[in-house]
Amino acid sequence: MIGGGGYIQSSIKEGYGILLRYLEGQCLKNGVQILLNEEVRSIDISDKEAVVQTQNGNYFAGR
Amino acid sequence: MNTDVLIVGAGAAGLMAASKLSLAGKKVVVLEARSRIGGRIYPLSIQEFGYEAMGGAEFVHGDAPISRQLLSEAGATLDHAEEWWDARSGEPHLVNHGSHLDKASATDTLLISKLQELRSDMAVAAFLDLYFADDEYQELRAMVVQRVEGYDAADPKRASALALYER
Question: Cβ B31–A40 below 8 Å, yes or no?
Answer without folding.
Answer: yes
